[in-house]
Design brief:
Helix content is 13%, strand content 12%. The chain has three helices and six strands.
Length: 147
Amino acid sequence: MQIHKVRPLHSRRPRKRVGRGRGSGLGAYSGRGLKGQKSRAGGGVRPGFEGGQTPQLKGLPKLRGFKNRFRIEYQVVNLERLSSLPAGITEVTPALLAKSRLVRNATKPIKLLGQGDLDRPLRIQSIKLSKAARSKVEAAGGQVEEG
């Protein structure tokens, strides 16, 4: 890089100096046009003002109610869906469920519900279970390790 090729980071155009005579091109009304609210010092309307017409924002419905910031949204899987897993699998983890497309995301919390029956003993790891699902897994000879 040579010194004559160095360019400034920002524009070096001089700022407009209004009200410095007609010869400058920004004299007389200083680029504000003639009279009226927008030509005065401090003039203009607030954001969202629509000339006295009812603003569009007032016509929209208000947000109501309460949204719990701490709610945990579980990805739900029923026991009957576990029968679609290959026969050799004995351990069920979030990564396995995501790989077999029973859930979308392995990092989000998963809950196993008790609809359907389990046909083989499985070891469930790092997955929440409902009471019905837990009893069916244990009845089938499986184990539960919540993490």
